[in-house]
Task: structure prediction
Amino acid sequence: MLDARLRPLIDPPLNALGRVLARAGISANAVTLAGLIPALGAAWALAEREFLLALALILINRLLDGLDGAVARARGLTDFGGFLDILLDFVFYVAVPLGFALAMPDNVLPALVLVASFTLTGTSFLAFATLAAKRGLETTAHGHKSFFYNTGLAEGTETILVFCAMCLWPQHFAPIAYGYAVLCLLTVGQRALIARAMFRD
Result:
């Protein structure tokens, strides 16, 4: 919901830094893989109840996630780069709830519900992108991507904000997780309705 609105603000500085990294010979895939370290580190920090450290690692991961696209735009997009980016995005999305589940037994059920909602959201996102590619549809609402990005209520920006809230108020993890899971399910329904309107023929 917020991703497309923030692109005009975050893309210029990211693209400038991406060009610097590209000129230095750093590949987009290397940046993507580097993001795996803070993603897994955040899960470990959460399991150890080091919530502020986890918050810092989450923000570092998201910075690297934005930078890999900027480097790719400077050096040229590749299909494998797009695949690696979305794969490691979902490693991150699963790692954070897992860390909270390991931190406290009471977090296990809401973490499972949240991961399940992420699974359904991701499935709707990738299924939509597959059908859009089949029909030759393109969009630049989320910047230049390797595949079609369908807008939804729950996107990357909202997920980052929710993860930050969980780290700042870990005692409220369960209601935050349940609330965001509902928003994810609404996003699945939203995409299903759009897909029905666009692809029913």
About this structure: The chain has one domain: 3-199. The mean pLDDT is 90. The CA atoms of residues 85 and 171 lie 31 Å apart. Residues 108-134 form the longest helix (27 residues).
